Amino acid sequence: MSAANLAPQPGPPLWLLAELTYRCPLHCAFCYNPVDFATSGPELSTDDWLRVLREARAAGSVQCGFSGGEPMLRDDLELLVAEAHRLGFYTNLLTSGVGLTAERAAALKAAGLDHIQLSFQDSTRELNDFLSHTRTFDLKQRVAALIKDNGWPMVMNCVIHRLNIDYIDRIIEMAVELGAEYLELANSQYYSWALLNRDQLLPTREQLERAERITNEYREKYGDRIRIFFVVPDYHEKRPKKCMNGWGNVFLTVTPDGTALPCHTAKMLPGLAFPNVREMGVREIWYESEGFNRYRGDGWMKEPCRTCPEKEKDLGGCRCQAYMLAGDPAAADPVCDKSPAHGVVVEALARAESGVGRSAPLVFRDPAASRRLAEGAG
Amino acid sequence: MSAATATDACPRVSRRFRLQWEEAQNAWVLLYPEGMVKLNQSAGEIMRRCDGSRTVSAIVADLEQAFGASGLADDVAKFLELARAQQWIET
């Protein structure tokens, strides 16, 4: 690589995503945790996490997300939130609400937690019953009340896919009824478990257009009462997303076993070693490690990205998607219609239109399936 | 002139946001759920004075003194309009 191609010194890792655990009471078929999560090494200790928080803050991190799996399963969550708050982080908890009792909510409030993002997911395997499932609704209602009582902003997230997209009006109504101020309707992205289930989860164009139209109608209807974000599924676009706002640009994910990654799924990429926070400090990981430097800037790009007038806009899209769909992490993201591998995305969309494969059983995220799939891959 | 920029109004940073000095960015930032707005220097200097007790006139006077400038009232009013539209401040 010539000096001219070297990326300028990146800014600080503004966003620290602390994936505290892969343990989870749910079995979501669209989970972005790695398919082989069950073979992951031991979780970081409390002291490890406290050190990571301090190092990341010293390196300039300011947003901290506690995620998983289900982060409520860590009984040191309150301790970690308290330290993050003391250090000056804005602290976010991304939870399904399972395990969030009044006692723990009060303890998290006392620890200085700034925000809870409550996700709609069914805690059962009966995905089709998702919206009529009273147990889920009761849980969300109870947790929504706890969020309000503690004065947190009410932010709800729902992953959208073929099996629930036609009920988007009911999802929005439910969010309004629960008092949400923000609702993120995030179309499933096809990584990890969602990729295994793509035929069953990818919506048709007609479904998508209807959902967007209905979302806009609700925006008109409710105005400032609820702000609705609709994240489009990239398969239906002509240009890829600027993944993670650029590789190693803003985001630092630390997985439960301490692996530091530029995004949740980057561990899948071949020929790339990612450092572990047990062995390397956050500053060194961010600025010096090969894993974080590999796809910074544009020196790594191949055609058609290298000479593309839009390359700064999307930075060639997602490295994981390029690897999964084109077999080369340095290729253009096949979502782009300039990509030589774009046909793979066209074919997936054609399968969605025809409905082929949609009746195959869903592969649910659970440790047994994960071990089976890890063995198959190995 | 709106409520936020009336000279006797006392704007304060909205409860939806947290204003904070970030050494690593050498800037004032507004933090909110899963997001951040990095303020430029003048925006930061105005926002840090929006504490709910100072009037817009007092904020202008304080800025003019701090930066040895005059005639900042219009610029401050313009910024406060924008800040209110973004829900960064409330009065």
From TrEMBL, chain A:
Domain Radical SAM core, residue spans: 10-224
Protein name: PqqA peptide cyclase
Keyword Repeat included in the entry's annotation: no
Cofactor: how and how many bound: Binds 1 [4Fe-4S] cluster. The cluster is coordinated with 3 cysteines and an exchangeable S-adenosyl-L-methionine.
Keyword Metal-binding: yes
Superkingdom of this protein's organism: Bacteria
InterPro entries from the UniProt entry: 4Fe4S-binding_SPASM_dom (IPR023885), Aldolase_TIM (IPR013785), Elp3/MiaA/NifB-like_rSAM (IPR006638), PQQ_synth_PqqE_bac (IPR011843), PqqE-like (IPR017200), Radical_SAM_PqqE_MftC-like (IPR050377), rSAM (IPR007197), rSAM_sf (IPR058240)
Lineage: Bacteria, Pseudomonadati, Pseudomonadota, Betaproteobacteria, Rhodocyclales
Annotated metabolic or biological route of this protein: Cofactor biosynthesis; pyrroloquinoline quinone biosynthesis
Enzyme Commission no: 1.21.98.4
Gene that this sequence comes from: pqqE
Sequence positions that bind [4Fe-4S] cluster: C24, C28, C31
Similarity field: Belongs to the radical SAM superfamily. PqqE family.
Cofactor: [4Fe-4S] cluster
Signal peptide: none
Task performed by this protein: Catalyzes the cross-linking of a glutamate residue and a tyrosine residue in the PqqA protein as part of the biosynthesis of pyrroloquinoline quinone (PQQ).
CDD domains (UniProt xref): Radical_SAM (cd01335), SPASM_PqqE (cd21119)
Subunit structure as annotated in this protein's UniProt entry: Interacts with PqqD. The interaction is necessary for activity of PqqE.
Keyword terms: 4Fe-4S, Iron, Iron-sulfur, Metal-binding, Oxidoreductase, PQQ biosynthesis, S-adenosyl-L-methionine
TrEMBL record, chain B:
UniProt name for this protein: PqqA binding protein
Subunit structure: Monomer. Interacts with PqqE.
Annotated keywords: PQQ biosynthesis
Organism this protein belongs to: Aromatoleum toluolicum
Biological or metabolic pathway of the protein: Cofactor biosynthesis; pyrroloquinoline quinone biosynthesis
Recorded family membership: Belongs to the PqqD family.
Gene3D superfamilies assigned: Coenzyme PQQ synthesis protein D (PqqD)
Purpose: Functions as a PqqA binding protein and presents PqqA to PqqE, in the pyrroloquinoline quinone (PQQ) biosynthetic pathway.
Top-level taxon in the UniProt lineage: Bacteria
